[in-house]
Amino acid sequence: MAGEKKILVACGTGICTSTMAINKLTTALEKRGKIKLVKINQCKIAEIASKASDNDLVVATTQVTAKIDIPVVGGTAFLTGIGVDKVVDEIISLLKI
Amino acid sequence: VEAQDMKMETLLIRDTHFRNKEDALESISNHLYNMGYVKSSFCKGIVSREAVYPTGLPIDKINVAIPHTDAEHVIKPVMVVVIPDHTVEFHVMGDNEKIVDVDIMFVLALKSPESQLQTLQELMGLIQDEDKLTKIKSVKTRLELKQILAV
Predict the structure, then answer these.
(1) How buried is A37 (Cβ within 10 angstroms: 0-12 exposed, 13-18 middle, 19+ buried)?
(2) What does the angle CA A38 – CA A49 – CA B44 come to, to the nearest 5 degrees?
(3) Does B59 touch chain A (CB under 8 A)?
(4) Element (H, E) at B34
(5) What's the CA gap between B105 and B31, in Å, rounded?
(6) B127 vs A80: CB contact, 8 Å cut-off?
(7) B113 and A42: CB-CB below 8 Å?
């Protein structure tokens, strides 16, 4: 879909906690009926500076030190299960979807 | 992807004494290296990555850490469930200022997210299920561990 918002999910390796977070984020967005409004991408945290311009929001399971001009949301809630609703609310609100 | 790659092997290390997280990660890495699961570079990779991108997760009564590193250091994917004789301090994932006393380490040697998705999903279910974590903390054998993971 042309107008879909792009979420970049990042972790240290780009294969472990980002995969876990994407799994939970996808389920949460499906429940809210928002999944068709977004496209989810995955990368290493070291790559976010170069990939930020192609995305609308970053969800990171690590600290983000790179200076990027799209919003960054912490993603550890998707791993612990604690505070997931609040983070999903924040993502939906930031993306205006 | 071959069928055997779809499900990772699971190992259990318990009641071991570690001085700190570096000691734990080095000891576990050496074990995995001796068993042929990882390359010798895995140790440096996992210790340095933990220092930069910590993996401690404060849950509630039982706290966990999920140390891991890049796929290039891995020969054969495996998850090691480590229950130390007393808690080990880890920094908190996403918040390097905070420290958490970790009861169970799930050390991951991953090759690709696609082939290990099932294990990652199981692990997530586990982390978010305090009853299961409590059971795992007292598990004695790899068979018992597998039975809890499979439920």
Answers:
(1) middle
(2) 110
(3) yes
(4) helix B21-34
(5) 15
(6) yes
(7) yes
Q: List the single residue in B52, B59, B108 with the smallest CB-CB distance to A16.
A: B108
Residue B44 CA to residue B22 CA, distance in Å, equals: 10
How many Å apart are CA A55 and CA A70, to the nearest integer?
Answer: 8
* pLDDT tens column, A39-97: 999 999 999 999 999 999 999 999 999 999 999 999 999 999 999 999 999 999 999 99
Alpha-carbon span A57 to A40, nearest angstrom: 10
Q: Which tens digit of pLDDT belongs to each residue from A6-47?
A: 999 999 999 999 999 999 999 999 999 999 999 999 999 999
Provide the b/e sequence for A8-25 (b: ≥16 CB within 10 Å): bbbbbbbbbbbbbbbbbb
Q: Tokens in use for B45? A: 């990779």
- Given a cut of 60, is residue B134 above it in pLDDT? yes
CA distance B132 to chain A (A): 14
A45 touches A62 (CB < 8 A)? yes
CA trace torsion B105, B28, B121, A18 (10° rounding): 90
Report d(CA A94, CA A62) in Å as an integer: 19
Res B64 pLDDT > 70: yes
Q: Do A61 and B121 touch (CB under 8 A)?
A: no
Q: How far is A78 from chain B (nearest CA, A)?
A: 9
